[in-house]
Amino acid sequence: MSRLMAIEEQARKDAGEVTTQATITVDTYFHVVAASTALSDGYVTDQMLSDQLDVMNENYAPHGISFTLLGTTRTINSNWASDGAELAMKKSLRQGDYKTLNIYFQKAIGGNLGYCYFPSTSATEGSNSFYYDGCSILYSSLPGGSATNYNLGKTVTHEVGHWFGLYHTFQGGCSELLGGDRIADTPAQASASSGCPTGRDSCPNKEGVDPIHNYMDYSYDSCYEEFTDDQETRMYSMWNTIRAA
């Protein structure tokens, strides 16, 4: 069994055991990567960044996780702003060690709201996996941005969940053959939600309705409300055994 598989197995064993976790404080760097100094080109304001940090801390506070912003960089590069030359960009901008969160706010990222890298046991310092680590976020999804239904800053909450090792709630669909999202207290879900479809039950033969309010679904920002106890346990497990190890 690989080290990562062993960690996954231990996280599953820990799930469901409600314990008092030690708190986690995450050193964080923001990187604004824009095509010009215009907001429409991704050059978000200091207030938007401050509001984004507040949203992160509010959403993770119930789980004893907080984020301390250590610095902000601003770069004008049209190629990087459109998610070109990702590795070169991150080798130039990345700060800190493997438990340091780097978030890149960009003008465009292939039609997506964001993406983030999972904890990896192969991400030794100086490796490409180490540099790739972090989250890329569409600038207009920040609080006050122009991304309709996705401009309350919760795209970052979702993507940072991946950084902590969380899968989508709809991972594996209704089948349990692949382990789903590895979380026992999120009901099975056949596919991603859209909007805020109260009462949606895409796996009617499984217990519970779809967890549309969970940050790891694809609901509107206004619909997002929570992580579960077992998701919290997994985040701490991935932090302690991979990121902060």
What does this structure look like?
It holds the Pfam family Peptidase_M43. Keywords: Disulfide bond, Hydrolase, Metal-binding, Metalloprotease, Protease, Signal, Zinc. This is Putative metalloprotease 1 protein. Residues 97-237 form the Peptidase M43 pregnancy-associated plasma-A domain. Belongs to the peptidase M43B family. The chain is globular and about 50 Å long. It starts with a helix and ends with a helix. Helix 1 (3-14) runs antiparallel to helix 7 (229-243). It is of the alpha/beta class and 245 residues long. It folds into two domains: 3-166 and 229-243, Collagenase (Catalytic Domain) (3-Layer(aba) Sandwich); 168-226, no CATH class. It has a five-stranded mixed sheet with strand order 2-1-3-5-4. Helix 2 (46-60) links the parallel strand 1 (24-34) and strand 2 (65-76). The mean pLDDT is 93. It has helices at 3-14, 46-60, 78-81, 86-93, 128-132, 154-163, 229-243; strands spanning 24-34, 65-76, 101-106, 114-116, 135-138.
